[in-house]
Amino acid sequence: MGFFDKILHGLTRTRQAVSREIQAVFGKGKLTDEVIETLEEKLLAADIGWDTTHLILEGVRKRARGQEIDQKQLLDWMAEEAKDLLQDAPKLSLDAKPYVILFVGVNGAGKTTSVAKIAHHHVSQGKKVLLAACDTFRAGAISQLDVWAQRAGVEIIKHQDGADAASVAYDAYAAAKSRGYDLLLIDTAGRLHTKDNLMEELRKLVRVLRKHDPALPHETLLVIDGNTGQNALPQFKGFGAAAPLNGLIVTKLDGTAKGGSVITLSREFNAPIRWVGVGEGLDDLIPFDRESYARALFGS
Ligand SMILES: Nc1nc2c(ncn2[C@@H]2O[C@H](COP(=O)(O)OP(=O)(O)OP(=O)(O)O)[C@@H](O)[C@H]2O)c(=O)[nH]1
Ligand SMILES: [Mg+2]
Predict the structure, then answer these.
(1) What is the largest CA-CA distance in the chain?
(2) pLDDT along the chain (300 residues), means of 10
(3) Among candidate residues 288, 5, 237, the one with its CA nearest the CA of residue 104
(4) Intra-chain end-to-end CA distance of the chain, in Å
């Protein structure tokens, strides 16, 4: 399956919530106030959010200029408006060696799985990837990452449970540097962005890593469960205060009808979505592309 088919498949539930509903209420005609109001309800129900919904519908209304349009035209325009509200992720370039990506997020968001998927993605492009098991907090977290490392065919740096996460990161960077790895992926413990002591642990990890090089980590990605929808805004603020964020990974889009919230997340955070998760397997993480996303969302 190509990336577009995967995203199309992954967004099935959201697309049903959005386009099927739209198709049920609009066949052909003018976009009267009444039609716009019904469309508004449908978009809001898909967790697209007030502002975004308003912008999409205003755009569509302007395009129609009082003319009769059909359903396909409406969905095409909606997809185009949605696309314009999204940012493309910057092209992934591993311009440092090792290139270091730190993964942060609340408990169960999908950090560890995303680390494994991104490792797999780069291994299949011939890169040498190392994982750092910096979730020393949750029992079983290290062996979980170990299993993923084996599946993805990559090496892992780990200490024992309860060890200092910052020192694992420090050692992992030293190992990656001396052994010529292209990419170092740092898995961290899930934590609530409102817990000061846990956020301090994250700040410490970044501080210690920067003893090697002040440019580290090259990227910090916030992993968000797609079911959280727009309620993820406080997470972005909380984690961003501990480690400047470069982008988002939105996971579990396959299991939610809230896939439309991605548009709002990207806009409100003013941060690009880098990857989207559409399943539990190693291949189920897709580099985000706004065109495919918008088309998969509106089924046009
Ligand atoms: N369907 C689906 N499941 C996912 C996706 N990403 C992660 N999961 C599942 O979500 C659960 C939690 O994933 P983890 O990667 O362990 O999450 P985590 O953020 O590392 O969790 P903690 O380390 O406990 O904070 C697992 O059962 C994963 O298989 C996805 O894109 N789609
Ligand atoms: Mg984890």
Answers:
(1) 67
(2) 86 86 88 93 87 95 94 94 89 89 97 98 96 96 98 97 96 98 98 92 97 97 90 90 93 90 85 93 94 87
(3) 237
(4) 19
Cβ pair 272, 88 in contact under 8 A: yes
Mutate which of 102, 227, 280, 288 to test ligand 1's pocket (most atoms within 8 Å of Cβ)? 280
- The DSSP call for residue 91 is P
83 CA from centroid of ligand 2 (Å):
31
Q: Which of 111, 113, 249, 273 to mutate to test the pocket of ligand 1 (most atoms within 8 A of CB)?
A: 113
**pTM of the predicted model as reported, rounded to 2 decimal places:** 0.94
Our answer on whether the CB atom of 138 is closer than 6 Å to any ligand 1 atom is yes
Give the CA distances from residue 283 to residues 71, 181, 235, 299, in Å, rounded to whole numbers and listed in that order: 34, 22, 26, 23
Write the DSSP symbol of residue 89.
P
Radius of gyration of the chain (CA): 21
Neighbours of ion ligand 2 (CB under 5 A): 111-112
Across 163-177, b (16+ Cβ under 10 Å) vs e yields bebbebbbebbebbb
